[in-house]
């Protein structure tokens, strides 16, 4: 059972309340697809992913990036119950989409980098520690239904 301090909850809700999903979501997903090109295999029906420019201007990828952040929003709103909140999403990624769960960490790291770049000096080591803890819980919950 994950325990959150009031300070950690404040940090996480603070980050997400000031986040522009339409900006950060696409940037994080694009970065993941460009830096780790094997992650592109799950998006074969999304159109042109030929190079970095194509990925960054692909509207289906942008829309999916926003969708992923909205998915994270559910974890923020249910911080004491992330595992149960993500049970169905985990089953979907495992049984239907067959997404290798290692990829959750890759996307989480890309999201951290994009948010760090956006927040600049406000992304202190303490903020990073809390954000990494949050993402670790999310990644763990998304991997729960794999067997
Ligand atoms: Mg996943 C669908 C969230 C990582 C590939 N992802 C979805 C959906 C959500 C979501 C909310 C829509 C589910 C639905 O339609 O009911 N994804 C989500 C989160 C994270 C994540 C929160 C991790 C932080 N996803 C992830 C990774 C990959 C991936 C790492 C592949 C590298 N997701 C993926 C694909 C779909 C979804 C291929 C289906 C897209 C579609 O066909 O529309």
Structure characterization notes:
The structure is a single chain. The chain is an all-alpha fold and 147 residues long. The protein has one domain (6-146): Globins (Globin-like), CATH 1.10.490.10. The protein has 8 helices and no strands. Helix 7 runs antiparallel to helix 8. It is globular and about 45 Å long. The mean pLDDT is 97. The structure holds protoporphyrin IX containing MG. Protoporphyrin IX containing MG (HEG) binds at residues 39, 42-43, 64, 67-68, 71-72, 89, 92-93, 97, 99, 103-104, 107-108, 138, 142.
Q: Provide the structure class.
A: mainly alpha
Ligand inventory reads: protoporphyrin IX containing MG
Report the CATH superfamily.
Answer: Globins
Query: What best-fitting shape do the alpha-carbon axes yield?
Result: globular
Low-confidence spans: pLDDT under 50, at least 5 residues? Answer: none
The CATH class is Mainly Alpha
Order of helices and strands: HHHHHHHH
Write down the CATH topology.
Answer: Globin-like
- Architecture, according to CATH? Orthogonal Bundle
Largest sheet: none
Terminal-residue CA separation: 21 Å
Helix content: 55-70%
Number of strands: 0
Mean pLDDT: 97
Q: How much of the sequence is in beta strands?
A: under 5%
Radius of gyration from CA coordinates = 15 Å
Number of domains: 1
């Amino acid at each position: 059972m994950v325990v959150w301090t009031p300070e950690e909850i404040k940090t996480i809700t603070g980050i997400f309340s000031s986040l522009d999903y339409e900006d950060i979501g696409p940037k994080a997903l694009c970065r993941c697809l460009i830096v780790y090109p094997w992650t592109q295999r799950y998006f074969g029906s999304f159109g042109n992913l030929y190079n970095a420019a194509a990925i960054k201007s692909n509207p289906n990828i942008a829309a999916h990036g926003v969708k992923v952040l909205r998915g994270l929003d559910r974890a923020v709103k249910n911080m004491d119950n992330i595992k149960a909140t993500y049970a169905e999403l985990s089953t979907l990624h495992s049984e239907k989409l067959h997404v290798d769960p290692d990829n959750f960490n890759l996307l989480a790291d890309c999201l951290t980098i994009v948010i760090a770049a956006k927040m600049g000096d406000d992304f202190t080591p303490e903020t990073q520690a809390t954000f990494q803890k949050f993402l670790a819980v999310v990644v763990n919950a998304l991997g729960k239904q794999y067997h």
